[in-house]
Write a structure and sequence with these properties.
The chain has about 50 residues and is an all-alpha fold. The chain has 3 helices and no strands. The protein is globular. It has one domain. About 60% of the residues lie in helices and about 0% in strands.
Length: about 50
Amino acid sequence: MQQLPKAAYSPDFRDRAVKLHLDENLTITEISKRLSLPKGTLKNWVAAAR
């Protein structure tokens, strides 16, 4: 079974995703659905930003 390649996200994309959570008070689940992003990845980015 082949592994899927890891997704590469630009720093700008990461910043915008984190700002949606911190500034606009959207939930991590809502943002992850909107951006097709794993919840765990977004949680890590938010934790690093704090």
